[in-house]
Amino acid sequence: xxRTRTFFGPLVSAVSGVSAITAPSLIIVGSLMMGSxxxxxxxxxxxxxxxxxxxxxxxxxxxxxxxxxxxFISYPLMKVAKGKFRAVHPLVYVFGILFAYQLIFLPH
Length: 108
What we know:
By secondary structure, this protein is mainly α. It is 76% helix and 0% strand. Helix 3 runs antiparallel to helix 4 (64-82) and helix 4 packs across helix 5 (90-105).
């Protein structure tokens, strides 16, 4: 197990920055997400905007993590703006703050 990781670790890290390798995974994740899009309440802006932001930001930033982070940041903000802050689990607020800290202060 250790020898396998020792061999494949540098190999994977050498090619992981190549967009030709990361793009297919983004396409697969995007196509899997499209199956769940029909369950989004597009008439409720506080539900639709964070989902739209996640769907749009993943391919534009070439980062699944950034898309998810923007969703975790925007969802509680929309609920607070709408006055439905109790409808959001407290951990979502914690994750939203942590993701905002990550995007603002940590290099990507």
